[in-house]
Write a structure and sequence with these properties.
With about 1050 residues, this protein is α/β, with parallel strands linked by helices. It is built from 35 helices and 34 strands. Strand 8 (about 185-190) and strand 9 (about 195-200) form a beta hairpin.
Length: about 1050
């Protein structure tokens, strides 16, 4: 089976991460699309940024309105010196820098920004038109022209904490509605009935209405290659829209794969939709009311030629009156031939008044969120992929509003933060200026976060942002990490991101580091550092680092807001001390790994052959080359390696292969080595396997051995004209040459000629060899090998040692450079080798081969990423910080999950923190201590407090005897050993001294020690479990310094 095609016609080095989301065909289609964007305030510039980074062909910008000082609070490409100048003219030069492939141009209009001047001669140049900052009357005017010309239309806006989108793509057909990889799995049974039922090995993840095609089904062969509609019955069963009563009975094996069917979506005009709107649901709160409010805001603006005054509650109420009137005129479908209006009761109207009061404002948490959503809809229209929005969508952040009534504290002050004052009032906004924040990561999310914080004014007063990131900038970062430019490639991310953010807001106070967070960094990010923080924000894709930051936030009782993206999917989580569960308490379980036997012997999916190839790469070019380099350059290496007898024989064999048997003198020797490796792995090993487990063999249960997950392999007879065979020789020989610093060769004729001349030894399989049938056998066999004494092992090792050259004799001629896997360098042959090895093995097992592009994705464990999702999640994160500084109740906070491919945005209230209860004893009997992960116990004593005095204090205070007392990993006391030798002396020593002596480390400069205590349960008996015998307490801070 041939490999799938590569993404030609696309700059893969730039767009690599988003190509895994969109695919090459959709990317190429997007690169042919022209977009007209009207309005370049905060929302407009977010949309422009996202679609330019994504790589449309051109973006025309219309906005001749003069810059206002308040625009600087969300429009990150405006500066103080731009006030009074046309917005578009000021911003277009900076937008052009985002992507050299996109033609960004200013579209001049006559007589100001009156939409009648956007006539057909302007519109017809574009495939999609997006309006921001326009009234509904203006939107209807342009929408009508766009429909006439067959142009896709979007209208969007942000009014304070209300975001709105309307889409009209007229008619669009998409081949992929969700962007998910086709579901596939193994079949275990198919029934013979009018509506056949298929049983699968695992969760099939299919939905009713999906289509599947079957392959390699045994017995019921007539079903193979049929495309059939399914109905989901349960996670391991689905029903077919197919009568199989005349088919032969199912016997064994077979697989299914989902087939994506094109779907056509039809749209109505804005005028039609205003009469009977289709509204996408988010959290099922105020969607219809938000729609009415958006119309009310427009009605107010059309009447007064401006938006409402944020200090005037009467104007906000007038907006709501317009909304109520509109709601009464709506005719929503209600059953057959029935309709209903939208009724807004008194409580809803009160909420709408609060939202309406700040309708004049655009703040970055909202513009970033909506900019991601709108940008993605434009991209859908351009590339005809994913499910388009039909047709209205609203997002409101009502929970972030302050509880104070509307008044003078919302009045503008003539600063860049006037829109924030309009929404939050001066008291809340001014808290933002003085926050000390820790931002971990300055990649895609980190760049967007810094931009948001610059617009918000975070840490522009007495506060400070500390940002750390170990990574340097690569070309592939530029398509979504928008603070970086080509000139920054190779520089540290944190430094470049900081410099760019400070251009946007020079008053930001930022300290940059390139430190990896973890235990090793606690000398820098020490207790004093954490005590000084307001909170932490994670912007990384490393689970270990995330959990570490979460643990530190819990320890120091600091809020944490986490976010992550995976292609079109994004999520945010807010962790509030004492209110919500921590990040670590709610994380998903780790993914299951691939069984060893599946990788080594019985692959049935391309992921298995890629994993095998990845391990082959490590063995050949990393560990094998490193061992050889160490032998040549490091004195005493063999003696050091011999200390591990389990691996020493393998090391000796590798050294002999690389430095004796196949030490290359030239590139031809490297081709010879590659050809012999091909014979071993793709011919000999397969013959050996099928000799031990022949085709007709039955398994332990009497079923055919080669069925289900096991695919019977066929040995490959080398043919240099077969592409997959040549690809392996080409990549392996060049990799081998690279590690020996021999000049590489890309001449196909030369490589083929040398490979064809190699004399390959005849292979005879070992019929006595044992090959595991499954992982259980594999583990037993490995255990047996470790325990067994190999006959003549010492003699074998001595012979191998003697065969090796003296390191000094070859040091001058052998210069080894072990590979370090790097997926993003197209010149290093790493992905070439893994692709070739994987596909050659896939050929053995009749598995569909994969392209180099997709192999890179799987082998490199690449996280697909796009600019739109990143922008959206950072906007949502910043909304949570505004809630946090107001000390909101848990009901106000939102964790969010979004999938822009669908599109869906689902906020939910975070889980309440769980609490444990410890029943106290002794003098405290009848009382209890309740605590959560956020709590710790504070014990204040003095420096001379002995260990014995501390134990007495604990018993007196909590009525329970200490069973175990630890300081970090060091045990200071155990009740079971209190009568042990030397314990009398230890008990009399100061507790701090005991900690210092037993840990062997100098005590920290903090006035306290962090202790862990487990108490003996007085109610436990011999029958009690170990867990029931112990009583766990929260962490203890023992303050001993004044």
């Amino acid at each position: 089976m041939e490999a799938k095609s590569e993404p030609h016609g696309v700059d893969e080095s730039l767009y690599s991460r988003q190509l895994y989301v969109y695919g090459a065909a959709a990317q190429r289609k997007m690169q042919e699309s022209n977009v007209l964007l009207v309005g370049l305030k905060g929302l407009g510039v977010e949309i422009a940024k996202n679609i330019i980074l994504s790589g449309v062909k051109s973006v025309g910008i219309v906005d001749p309105e003069p810059v206002k000082i308040s625009d600087l609070g969300s429009q990150f490409y405006l500066r103080a010196g731009d006030v009074g100048k046309p917005r578009a003219e000021c911003s277009v030069p900076l937008l052009k820098e985002l992507n050299k492939y996109v033609d960004v141009h200013h579209v001049p209009v006559k007589g100001g920004c009156q939409l009648p001047y956007l006539d057909e001669s302007v519109l017809k140049k574009y495939n999609c038109v997006c309006l921001t900052g326009k009234t509904i009357t203006e939107q209807k005017y342009v929408n009508k022209m766009c429909r006439k010309l067959g142009i896709k239309f979007i209208a969007a806006d942000v009014h304070g904490l209300l975001g709105s989108i309307f889409c009209d793509f007229i008619e669009i057909t998409v081949n992929d509605t969700d962007g998910e990889r086709e579901r596939r799995g193994l079949v275990t049974n198919i029934t013979n009935e009018e509506k056949a039922v298929v049983t699968t090995e695992k969760n099939h993840q299919l939905g009713t209405g999906d289509y599947v095609v079957f392959r390699e089904v045994g017995g019921m062969t007539k079903i193979n290659d049929l495309k059939v509609k399914v109905k989901n019955l349960r996670k391991d069963k689905f029903e077919l829209d197919l009568d199989t009563r005349e088919f032969k009975q199912y016997t064994n094996s077979g697989s299914f794969q989902q087939v994506k069917i094109p779907v056509t979506f039809k749209f109505q005009s804005l005028e039609e939709q205003l009469e009977a709107p289709k509204i996408a649901w988010t959290d099922f709160v105020l969607e219809e009311a938000s729609h009415c409010l958006r119309v009310g805001i427009s009605s107010f603006e059309e009447k007064h030629k401006r938006l409402p005054d944020p200090t005037n509650i009467a104007e906000a109420k007038q907006v709501v009156e317009f909304a109520v009137e509109y709601g009464k005129s709506v005719k929503l479908p209600l059953g057959e031939k029935k309709t209903r209006s939208i009724e807004l009761d008194t409580k809803v109207q009160e909420k709408l008044v609060k939202l309406a009061s700040a309708a004049c404002a655009q703040i970055t948490p909202m513009t970033a969120t909506m900019g991601g959503l709108v940008g993605q809809e434009i991209i859908k229209g351009c590339m005809a992929k994913f499910t388009p929005l039909r047709q209205f969508m609203y997002f409101n952040a009502l929970q972030a509003l302050p509880t104070e009534p509307i008044g003078k504290h919302h009045a503008p002050k003539g600063t860049r933060y006037d829109d924030y004052y309009a929404v939050f009032g001066n008291k809340v906004q001014e808290k933002i200026f003085d926050l000390n924040m820790f931002l971990i990561g300055s990649g895609a999310i980190g760049c967007e976060m810094l931009k948001n914080w610059a617009m918000m004014g975070l840490s522009t007063g007495s506060g400070k942002i500390t940002i750390t990131d170990m990574d340097s900038i690569e070309k592939s970062n530029l398509s979504r990490q928008f603070l970086f430019r080509p000139k920054d490639i190779g520089k540290m991310k944190a430094e470049c991101a900081t410099a760019a953010a400070k251009v946007m807001n020079p008053k930001m106070q930022i300290k940059t580091d390139d430190i990896c967070v973890g235990k090793a960094s606690e000398n820098v990010y020490d207790d004093a550092f954490w005590e000084s923080l307001y909170g932490a924000c994670t912007a990384l894709d490393n689970m270990k680092a995330r959990l570490y930051i979460d643990q530190r936030c819990v320890e120091f009782q600091k809020p944490l807001v986490d976010s992550g993206t995976l292609g079109t999917k994004g999520n945010t989580q807010v962790c509030v001390p004492f209110l919500t569960e921590s990040y670590g308490e709610s994380r998903d379980p780790p993914e299951e790994g691939i069984p060893v036997c599946t990788v080594k012997l019985y692959p049935y999916r391309i992921e298995h052959t890629i994993q095998w190839a990845r391990e082959l790469f490590e063995g050949f070019f990393v560990s094998g080359a490193s061992d050889s380099k160490s032998f040549v350059e490091k004195k005493g290496y063999l003696q050091e390696a011999a200390e591990d007898q389990n691996s020493y024989l393998g090391v000796l064999k590798t050294l002999n292969e690389m430095l004796v048997e196949h030490k290359p003198k030239n590139f031809e020797d490297c081709v010879t080595w590659a050809r012999l490796k091909f014979e071993k792995h793709f011919h000999n090993d397969i013959i050996q396997l099928t000799t031990i487990h022949p085709k007709a063999k039955a398994d332990k249960k009497g079923n055919p051995f080669w069925s289900g997950k096991r695919r019977y392999p066929i040995p490959t007879k080398f043919d240099s004209k077969r592409q997959s065979d040549y690809d392996f020789i080409y990549a392996a020989s060049n990799m081998y040459a690279s590690i020996f610093n021999i000049p590489i060769c890309k001449d196909e004729k030369v490589i083929r000629a040398v490979a064809d001349k190699v004399k390959v030894p005849e292979f005879k399989p070992d019929t006595s060899m044992k090959i595991a049938e499954d992982d259980e056998d594999q583990k037993a066999e490995e255990k047996k090998k470790k325990e067994a004494k190999v006959e003549g092992l010492e003699e074998i090792m001595k012979r191998l040692e003697d065969a090796l050259p003296k390191p000094a004799d070859i040091r001058s001629e052998v210069k080894l450079s072990p590979a370090k896997f790097e997926k993003d360098d197209p010149t290093n042959f790493h992905i070439d080798f893994i692709t070739a090895a994987s596909n050659a093995r896939a050929y053995n097992y009749s598995i569909a081969q994969e392209s180099k592009h997709q192999t890179k994705f799987i082998a490199g464990k690449i996280i697909p990423a796009i600019a739109t999702t990143t922008a959206m999640v950072t906007g949502l994160v910043c909304l949570e910080w505004y809630k946090l500084i107001q000390n909101k109740d848990i009901e106000a906070y939102r964790n969010s999950y979004a999938n822009l491919a669908l599109p869906s945005l689902t906020p939910s209230e975070p889980m309440t923190v769980s609490k444990r209860e410890v029943k106290l004893a002794g003098d405290k009997k009848g009382e209890s201590l309740k605590f959560s992960c956020w709590d710790h116990i504070k014990v204040e004593m003095d420096e001379g407090t002995s260990l014995k005095d501390f134990l007495k204090y604990w018993y007196k205070t909590y009525g329970l005897k200490v069973g175990a007392l630890t300081y970090g990993p060091t045990s200071l006391y155990m009740s079971a050993m209190k009568k042990g030798p030397g314990m009398k002396k230890v008990l009399k020593m100061p507790l701090a001294k005991v900690a210092e002596q037993k840990s062997g480390e100098k005590l920290p400069d903090t006035p306290y020690l962090k202790l862990s205590i487990v108490c003996d349960n007085p109610e436990a008996d011999e029958k009690s479990s170990d867990e029931d015998k112990n009583v766990q307490f929260p962490p203890v801070r023992f303050y001993y310094k004044k």
